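Duplicate of #3305? Posting structure anyway:
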């Protein structure tokens, strides 16, 4: 199955589509969801800027997105 969320997607685009992922971003150290850069950065750019493990972040984001999609 293809991932619902890719690292090329925008941070805010992802949050708007899957609001439950906010907790994942915060848990991984990206607490500035409301900052201006979140409107322009891709998930990958944000992860690099904050020194995150992009693979772990993507795994967790997609688990939450899949779960929220299944419940709709």
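Output from current build:
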């Amino acid at each position: 199955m293809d991932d619902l969320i890719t690292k090329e997607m925008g941070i805010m685009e992802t949050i708007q589509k899957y609001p439950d992922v906010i907790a994942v971003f915060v848990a991984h150290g990206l607490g500035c969801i409301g900052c201006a850069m979140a409107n322009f950065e891709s998930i990958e750019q944000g992860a690099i800027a904050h020194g995150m493990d992009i693979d772990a972040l993507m795994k967790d984001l997609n688990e939450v997105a899949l779960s929220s999609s299944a419940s709709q």
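Confirmed duplicate; merging threads. The radius of gyration is 11 Å. The helical segments are 11-17, 22-27, 43-49, 54-70.
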